[in-house]
Amino acid sequence: MFQRPAFGLAEIAWRWSFGAAAVMLAAISFFEYLDTLTVARGDLLLLRTRQPALISEVIRHALRGSGLRFVAAIIVLSLALLIGWTVIAALARAATINALLDYLRQQFQASGLNTDEKLSRDWSLGSLLGLNFLRAGGTLAAMMGFVAAIILGGVASHADNSAPVLALLITLAVMLLVWLVWSMVNWFLSLAPIFVVRDGRDILAALAASIDLCRSHAGAVFAAGTWFGLAHVAAFFVATTAVAFPLGLASVLPRGVTLGGVLLVTLLYFAVVDFLYMGRLAAYVAMVELPGSAAVESPNLLPPDRGRPSVLSIPPTSAVDPDELILSDLPAPG
Q: DSSP letter at 88?
């Protein structure tokens, strides 16, 4: 993170570029949707009154019958962003992991450690696309799970709303369960591209290798996730504290200065988060690439002498003299 900040800057570049394009497409779609709404002259007169009740009536009248267009716009925009993110994230992750592998191999060799150059680097773009598609599908399923949690909470509450605490507990419990499952699945899917790019594995083999990494390097994986997670939490608290200053002076400072301060702190927080994500990814790549990490090596890529030793290759021990007669060859006693 500190010796080669270019990795973090590259992560920021592709993430923020996609985010800016997504915000722009969302804004264009929203304004295009507003252009489809019709406002009559009577509605304009009601808007000029500046009465909240009359303005809400005008908005309700203008939005009448436009729900289908709004839903269609959201579906089209979501599909476009999903396809774009799947392709861009696959290409970006392939580039960053390849760069990390080259950098770590140079560092290991400079330290006198021998790395395995025999491993395949003929990775498949289709596998990366499949993993990103699964991540997007898992995120969509998690969002639907959150909606289902709200629905379950509403069903659990009575018609007279006599048990609001029970409904809230059910909703929070289901949301927590959905979040835990989604976090675990998303973590494995974000780790699997390392094995796709490094070993040229397919989707299932990469996921299996991710599980093997957790089993063989449980302490290192837990330590890396814990320390980077704590750094993320610390950055969040620092950002929220910094945002409180311009918001607290909102009554004194101009609106532009307040909004600019909040936006600057938010962007700095996102930049720190991207740097931390790249640092954690580099830690996982180092665990896999470190010489001696045989637990995550592909069985198909092992040389013949790295497999199970043959019986013929076991040298005779010095405990038995090969020139002596075998006990069964001795003559039986009289």
A: H
